[in-house]
Inverse folding.
């Protein structure tokens, strides 16, 4: 039965009022042509601090972004109140394409990857030579993540006054990873910061390392006007206490670069890493994979790299280093 006649006019049609009083939904989204570009400095409980035209602006993610999230280092487009005044809130309406994404998982069985930082071009792996003892497997895992993300690795060794760095440096010498060695005295007089700052100039560098290695202490020395809380190493467990709870991007003095201090990690899962991409960090070995069998893991009897190295095309130590990094997914961090 028809509710209206065959040719109803406007007076015949009943329109149900909108009880909420809001506008009807539409698929047409605003273009936000007046949005300003900002850099995400830190994220805290759904609030993002962005740097826009030299001002720190608190913002939240717009609903239209859906599940797409913004992380420290992201370039974003922001609308709303951009004054940076107290109790004001802007909206992030776009996350610009990323040049790099550093990811990790909680462990190698975890299917959910977490973005650590975005748009960094260098990864500083901070490791103490003692108190706590260095964990080479964790260093290897960070190196794999850096190579996969396209970041240049930098090894920063602290507390050389407690133990010599020679053995650790020798094990990474074939990888050609640049390094800086510091001690507590150099941290106190500022010379350590100067050594590290030379490696950071012109880069956006993410600092990673497990708790207690002196990562945040070094960041405080690099950017003294923005000091963060530091902790100590537990004498019983040999582990540091988490004092940095969220990642924070800080500009180096003179706007010569950026450092991103991240919370201490006790594991660095690589479930998201495709092992076939790690070979690209070894250009001297990559050409030798042309004759490898399909889906070669580069650590099996039929791998063409063995013959390639035996013919003198590359240093055998480099092949050993590659296979050691590839094997890190099969080991736990504490091994």
């Amino acid at each position: 039965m028809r509710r209206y006649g065959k040719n109803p006019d406007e007076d015949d049609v009943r329109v149900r009022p909108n009880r909420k009083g809001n506008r009807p939904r539409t698929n047409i989204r605003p273009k936000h042509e007046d949005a300003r570009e900002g850099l995400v400095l830190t994220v805290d409980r759904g609030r993002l601090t962005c740097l826009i035209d030299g001002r720190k602006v608190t913002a939240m993610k717009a609903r239209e972004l859906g599940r797409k999230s913004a992380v420290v280092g992201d370039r974003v487009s922001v609308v709303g109140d951009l004054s940076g005044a107290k109790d004001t809130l802007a909206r992030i309406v776009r996350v610009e394409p990323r040049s790099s994404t550093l990811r990790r998982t909680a462990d190698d069985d975890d299917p959910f990857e977490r973005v650590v930082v975005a748009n960094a071009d260098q990864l500083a792996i901070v490791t103490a030579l003692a108190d706590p003892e260095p964990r080479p497997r964790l260093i290897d895992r960070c190196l794999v993540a850096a190579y996969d993300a396209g970041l240049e690795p930098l090894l920063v060794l602290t507390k050389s006054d407690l133990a010599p760095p020679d053995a650790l440096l020798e094990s990474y010498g074939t990888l050609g990873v640049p390094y800086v060695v510091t001690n507590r005295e150099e941290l106190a007089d500022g010379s350590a910061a100067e050594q590290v700052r030379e490696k950071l100039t012109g880069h956006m560098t993410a600092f990673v390392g497990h708790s207690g290695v002196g990562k945040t202490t070094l960041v405080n020395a690099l950017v003294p006007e923005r000091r963060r809380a530091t902790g100590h190493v537990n004498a019983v467990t040999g582990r540091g206490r988490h004092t940095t709870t969220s990642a924070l991007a800080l500009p180096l003095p003179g706007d010569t670069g950026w450092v991103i201090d991240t919370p201490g990690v006790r594991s660095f899962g690589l479930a998201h890493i495709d092992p076939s991409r790690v070979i690209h960090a070894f250009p001297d070995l990559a050409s030798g994979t042309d004759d490898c069998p399909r889906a070669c893991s580069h650590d099996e009897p039929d791998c063409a790299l063995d013959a390639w190295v035996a013919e003198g095309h590359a240093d055998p130590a480099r092949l050993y280093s590659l296979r050691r990094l590839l094997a890190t997914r099969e080991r736990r961090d504490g091994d």
